[in-house]
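Dear colleague,

Thank you for sharing your sequence with our group. We've completed the structure prediction you requested, and as agreed, I am returning the results in plain text so they can be pasted directly into your records. Please verify that the sequence below matches your submission; if there's any discrepancy, let me know and we will rerun it promptly.
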Amino acid sequence: MSLLINRSKKWGFIHIPKTGGTSITSVLHKVKGTEYVTKAHNHIGKFENIKDYHIMCFVRNPYTRFASAYYHQTRIDGWMSINKFIENIDLNDYVFFPQYWFIQNGSTEDKKVTFIGRYENFINDFNLVMDYVGKDGHSIPHHNRNSIYDKHPNLNQHDFYKHIYNDKDVKNWVEERYSNDFKIFNYELDI
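Please find the predicted structure tokens below.
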């Protein structure tokens, strides 16, 4: 969780929850000259004096992002139905903020995201980020990993998460809550 900045190389990183940002931050923070703007999730508006900076972030399909949040929380709190989970969501928790909020809130002509990586193209987009920041010999750790991958290393996340959307109320909740994410980042409404 964080906003990172590197003043000498003129780049910043916005960690949007449940997009692989913990793993990315763990690598980017090791780049010489990189510091935290804040260790909490926040939006681009929290950066100061970033005209001509390369500001990067990652986004994720809202369906798999929400499902990932659900499974992550049930690993911590114990199992609960998806409907009970939705009833108990604190909508003021950054994890459940729409992704566009992190990119657009506080954005100006001199303060804007210049690269949006996609979780669905994680390795390629991560490599583009690493090339930009000048970090050679990089590998990406997998933090906050679902233990299901220990049993099924070739599991397709998108296919695995589909079952929770058999309930139309759950699917509708996600589509309504993240409607702008679907539109802005060009994600399909089909799961």
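Summary note from our side: The chain has one domain: 3-184.

Kind regards,
the structure core
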